[in-house]
Structure formats: C-alpha cells, structure tokens
From TrEMBL:
Residue ranges constituting the VOC domain according to the UniProt record: 8-131
Protein known as: VOC domain-containing protein
PANTHER family: F18B13.24 PROTEIN, PTHR46142
Pfam families, A to Z: Glyoxalase
Amino acid sequence: MSESVQIKFNHYAIYARNLEETNDFYSEVIGLQKIEDPFKDHLHTWFDIGHGLSVHVIAREQPWKEQKVDRTNHICFCVKDLEGFMEKLNKHEVPFGDSKGSNGKVNLRPDGIRQIFFQDPNGYWLEINDDV
C-alpha cells in the first residue's frame, strides 16, 4: 500500500429492532453521548465513542431477523471502574458474564485485563474491560 493511501477506522453500524429502546441502552446503560447525524430522518442515531469514531444505530424495517452471533463477534469498550459498571448493568437488569458464558463472572485475560460480556437489546454482543 502506498504511503498516500492511509486507512483508519471510522464507525461501527448496527441495526435496531426498536430504535428508541436501543438508543436508551447505548446512552443510559453504556453511557455514550448522541451526536448529530446527517440524515435527520429519525431512522438513524449516531453515538460518539471518542477520537472522531462513532457507533451508528439504524432502525431496521420489519420483519426483524434475530441476530445469530456469538460473543466472539463483539464491540468492546473499556472503563476505569469495572465493578461500578457491573453495578450499573445489575441496576438495569442486564445479565453479563465471562467469555465462557458463566453469569455474573469476570474473565481474566492472560495479560491481567478483566472483561465481561453481554448483549444489547438486539442480540449484539458487547465486551467491557478495564484496559484503560
């Protein structure tokens, strides 16, 4: 690849069965901030994830097909206070577990980073770890 062609990550897009429920999840549970989207059609919501990157949530027309993905395919966010985040998940009744699927358990990577996994309202997997 020539030096003039440089690629960088821009955004991650997901479909939503229920846009309002999904927006609430990503703003209230995950803690992401909404940013302006260029469509302004009430079918898209964009969330800032820092450094000019974003998550795009797109309302999916019916019929909805259940997402068939395992936790290997996921988006990951990191937090300084994993225990505090787990308390937040418990408050919102969002089940979480380790990489093997053991409910309420924390996974410990070989490098000492702790991580948990859970699903959003649409079935997409997320990881939260303390690699900050």
